[in-house]
Design brief:
globular; 2 domains; Rossmann fold; alpha/beta; about 35% helix; binds iron/sulfur cluster
Length: about 450
């Protein structure tokens, strides 16, 4: 059946975000871009329509160092969110442009649609609806995070022919959940030529060239996380922790610089600093040895544990600009109970290393998880005050309940919303586990206080 190999055309789609707010913090559909390069290497013809990374979708005037606003259009709220007194928007290109982009391409043989946040599913459904209207006979598979965390919901409501749970790339071709198996289901034929690509290093670089343009590249030096925090789905989504050869990451950076002039890179690792002496330290040394002149950003909270003088200095000299760390809470009991990834003394020590290396307080942001089930106001206030006392930026991240995490049962018990059957209620903008409207008001004022506490430190 290998005759299908060079004739099949696969369309990849990254749908819209529908939400109360969205901002492009160095976001790219990395999984889809890896799938694109993988399929091209297997001989398929691959095209991509990305609702978020299109010139019409990005507000170029607002972009700086690879991040900025998305174009948006206010739309009606889904009925489940009608009680929320905020505007709701579609972020990304217009539906008219999306239709045009699909029609410009010749009819694909299969469509693969990705998904991210569970509560962004209306944007996914809208995209699938239009694709099915234009290409009714073409089989379509939906994968990604929403499809993995809420597969029954996706099967019941998305309109996809196939809902794919979990990763499809890091599997043997014979695995029933591999990309080969997905395509065999869609095409109804055996594909017996897939090579096993089961490590990050054996994959080709992601197919950024499928995007109309890009001003920054997302990098992965590892996948998954060796920790297992109660509120995080990393273990469920990625399974085992795997690391790349740092020289291969350096080669990739060099490739994007030389071929596309990219200067801004963001690391999307869940555990960039874990095992740093084997991976991040050699990578940073190689970056300096090769003389790259780039800006590196870490929007995905890094670990504070493991930060030391050498690593902080290397990061500073290599060009790290945006540092975000996952701290979550200053309450020692909760730190221990939810995953034991950090303590207050380790945090203070890590901040000292970073500042001694040359980073300023405003470069260093610590994410604080607020609105957890059972979390009281004092804990949240104490956490903001503690982080501010270190002279770094407290960045409040409202808790979003995630299915299949250890904290999910507590989230269900503490919320007065039907989290189990309506993923829209996972949206952290509506503070789903703070049933009391006073708490919501409190959290809003805490954000103001967090910003103010940091600016005071800078004065
Ligand atoms: S350390 Fe971070 S990525 Fe790892 S499980 Fe905890 S929250 Fe998730």
């Amino acid at each position: 059946m290998t005759s299908h190999r060079h004739t099949k055309k696969i369309l990849l789609v990254n749908p819209w975000i529908h939400d109360f707010a969205a901002y492009d913090y160095w976001a790219k559909p990395l999984g889809l871009l890896y799938i694109g390069s993988f399929l091209r290497n297997e001989g398929f013809r691959v095209e991509l329509v990305d609702c978020l990374n299109d010139p019409e979708a990005l507000c170029f005037g607002t972009r700086k160092n690879g991040r900025g606003r998305f174009q948006k259009e206010e739309i009606s709220k889904p009925a489940a969110l009608n009680h929320i007194p905020r505007r709701y928007s579609r972020y990304g290109m217009s539906p008219g442009k999306f239709r045009e982009a699909l029609q410009r391409r010749c009819r694909p043989d299969a469509v693969l649609v990705t998904s991210v946040m569970t509560y962004w599913y209306p944007g996914v459904f809208e995209a699938i609806g239009i694709i099915k209207e234009l290409f009714p006979e073409v089989p379509l598979a939906l994968g990604g995070i929403y499809a993995t965390l809420c597969p029954e919901h996706a099967r019941a409501h998305s309109g996809a022919d196939l809902v794919v749970e979990g990763d499809v790339l890091f599997r043997e071709p014979e695995d029933k959940k591999s990309l080969r198996a997905v395509l065999e289901t869609l095409f109804g034929v055996d594909l017996d030529f897939f090579k096993p690509y089961n490590t990050l290093d054996s994959l080709p670089f992601p197919a950024y060239d499928l995007l109309p343009s890009f001003d920054q590249a997302v990098l992965l030096t590892s996948r998954g996380c060796p920790y297992s925090c109660d509120y995080c789905a990393s273990r469920y989504l990625d399974g085992f922790f795997q690391e790349r050869d740092p020289l291969s990451v350096a080669d990739e950076i060099e490739y994007w610089i030389d071929s596309y002039g990219v200067r801004d890179f963001s690391f999307y690792d869940d555990a960039l600093i874990v095992n740093a002496e084997k991976r991040l330290v050699p990578l940073l040394e190689e970056i300096m040895r090769r003389g790259f002149s780039c800006r590196f950003h870490c929007p995905n909270g890094m670990h504070l544990r493991g930060m030391n003088d050498t690593l902080a200095r290397l990061m500073y000299r290599a060009g790290f600009k945006t540092l975000r760390f996952g701290f979550e809470t200053s309450q020692a009991d909760r730190q221990k109970a939810t995953g034991d990834k950090i303590s207050n003394p380790e945090t203070a020590e890590a901040v000292r290393h970073l500042k001694r290396a040359g980073f300023r307080g405003e470069d260093i942001g610590l994410y604080l998880l607020c609105g957890l089930p059972g979390q009281n106001r004092k804990e949240m206030e104490d956490t903001v005050d503690y982080v501010a006392s270190l002279g770094v930026r407290p960045v409040i991240a409202e808790y979003s309940p995630i299915p299949h995490t250890a904290l999910w049962p507590s989230a269900l018990a503490s919320s007065n919303l039907d989290l189990a059957s309506e993923p829209l209620y996972h949206n952290n903008s509506i503070f789903p586990c703070l049933p009391d409207s006073d708490d919501v008001q409190f959290l809003r004022s805490l954000k103001v206080r967090a910003r103010a506490s940091h600016s005071r430190k800078q004065d």
